[in-house]
Write a structure and sequence with these properties.
Blueprint lengths: L2 E3 L4 E3 L9 H37 L2 H28 L1 H12 L3 H9 L1 H16 L2 H13 L3
Helix pairs in contact: 3-4
Length: about 150
Amino acid sequence: MKHYKTESNYYSDLDGKQGLTQAQLSIQQGKKLVRRAFMILGVGMIVVLIATTLALLTFPLEQISAFMTQFHLLAGFWRLAVFIILIGGWERWSQWYRRWGYLNDEQYQRLLAARWRMAFWILIIELLVVDNLPGQFANALTELMFQE
């Protein structure tokens, strides 16, 4: 059971957070989220590393290359779906994080305002890293320069 007193900006609940201010709870919840995200990311990277190593030891390189070519389209649809869910559901995710992270009105408004900046940077990362846009540009430029 949580209680919030607006006049003193004071939270208390039954989870042992007695006497913490809203800002302290918000920072504490943010740190908890970052720790969990990095742990999930680390475990995911270890799983991918193990799967890649097992695939390289088990299958010939040509077969892995053919699989990756087929998988590229599926991975693209997966990334697009995650992007649409993240940006399309931004208000819902923000409301959830506001309750969970003890955000005040100003913090919540900044989170809502960050939606399109986040979308822009996700697209930039997608183009630069995943689609290798600079590498494709360099290859096309090289072909044009050394064309006989």
